[in-house]
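User: Hi! I'm working on a homework problem where we have to compare a predicted structure to a textbook description. Could you give me the structure for the chain below?
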Amino acid sequence: MRKFWHQFCRDRRGNYALMTAVAMVPLMGAVAVAVDFSELNRQKQMVLNALDAANFAAARRLAEGATDDQIRAYAVDFFNANLNNIDPANVALNITLPTNQAGGGLLKMSATLNYHPYFYPSSSLLVGTSTVDANKPIKLGMDSQVRLKNTLEVAMVLDNSGSMTTPGTGSGQKRIDLLKQAAKQLVDTLAQQAAQIKQIDKPVQFSLVPFAASVNVGSDNDNASWMDVYGLSPIANENFDWSTLNAPDKYAQKINGIWYKKGTGWGDDENQVLSRFELYQDMKVVTSHERIVGSARTVCDTYRSNHTCSHSHTEYDYNDTYGPFASWQGCVEVRPYPYNVDDTPASGGPNNTGIGVGDPATMFVPMFAPDEPGNHWKVTQNPLEPNPTTYGAANSWWNDDPSSTTGKARQSNMAKYFQPRPIDAPTLSSGAGPNYSCTTTPITPLTDVTQTDGLAAIKAAIDLMQPNGNTNVPEGMAWGWRTVSSAPPFTEGRPETERGNDKVVIVLTDGENTYSTVSSDPAGNKSTYAAYGYTGVGYNGTSVTRLFGGTSNAIGQFNYSSSNYTAAMNEQMAKLCDNAKAANIMVMTVALDMSSTSSSDQKAMAALKACSSDSRFRKDPTDPSKPAKLFWNATGATLSDNFKEIANELSNLRVVG
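Assistant: Happy to help. Predicted structure tokens:
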């Protein structure tokens, strides 16, 4: 080889040397390009890796609620830290954040790499490129997009009124059974999709709000901070007159807005609060009435003129055993306007001085259906003799105090509740008692359906639903909103400021809003008792009733007809829907088996459609320039398919492209 090289150098034949010299120029250029190309690709990949890493890191910060400036600064730092030996001065970074608060979106980042080649300038000069052009950097643009995986919080607000026992149109099954199947199918579909998302905590959560005439928040919440345990709310005593407890040694006294037991006659209970919860605790029923042996005594009924006894009977002493009559089952009344149509957190409990702080009207009041005027049973030797005055009210379940002469006074007299119910009092009709109109199973708060236990809990709660009672859509929807809210009563919802999270309320009903009138009305209630209380009884010392609070002039404040009650509830519902949507709650509504030929059903469907949000993805088939409304007019035969469409809508929310 050495000999060959010396011969090559001494060779004076020009053709070979010239050809070799000419060939070396492109060969050296090719080598230079290859080296620079390899380095360019390496730096490109480094920048792209840093870009993707910064994008994912920024997406997590966005989901955590960081501000735009914080996200941008964090992304820049993260990007530069991952460039390794690339000078950040040679890379320009651009960040585009999603503009929408809810609904995920795209987090976009782009970078421009200014690559300065090592050998390319020299090789370019050999082929005649100018010095300026040869030393220009090579610009290379790269993009990264992160499709934000949305988290979903979905409240299913489902009609449990009595009409849900009706067979669904086009199906041999009851509406409630069809609804259970469709609801569980929806939960399963979203749970399966969410199970694939590992990097997000609680990607899909569901709550369940069964509703009828009222909503059950769960009896285990009796001591919750948002419950009115002191009777401070302006509606807490609208049906009760505590001043009727007025015996010298056993009376009621109001101090700083709270009623207390006063007098030695209360025994150990003296100074305790008088409230609806206290009534549930204090009401007793005689469970046994045992004669005391040897207690027989003769009692004269009538006397002769000489004061001797002409007619007598034997009386005995008895030992009575008492047991509890009822406990609160978990239903609450509607808050007074405007708190019935918004998500204002409850505040209004007493401070350490016993004086209320905040607004007591925001507190939630446990339902307690007053004993309506009925019979008063006199305990005699054997039978219970009814008082001659019979009122026949809808919910007469306790022994009236005979000292009250009018129906209204009999209803509001509180002394009766502290007299035990006799052991032989007539059996109550089904549903009668202080929990009248509380017919639904409790709310199930937001639950992570990607967890086996959570999925099972939601589906079990769906299976437990039983239809009974009237229809109060606005109260159901209000509680659906409260379950996805981050504020009390239920706080499982993510903060409203958190981006990439959708809060959704799905409302299904099979009929119009209803509130029942009464035929026999000795107390002037104007309606049966339910979540709005009595439509004829005002609160806070006024004639204003909650059903009519905040309604327009079109609603007659003293029109106590079923149609006017429905119209008032529809107005309450419209305001609630507007408030929820303004708070970025996505509302989906479903009308089940409503007839287009029924005027009442037409109004109900119009109210549901107006309540619904606009789709972010689908267009109105009748007007493609407008988004489709998230409203479904379902039948028993189509309900399953309609819920599949709802699942598709929710699935699209999870990944926005």
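For your comparison, note the following. Residues 379-389 have pLDDT under 50 and may be disordered. Residues 221 and 330 are 8 Å apart (CA to CA). Good luck with the assignment!
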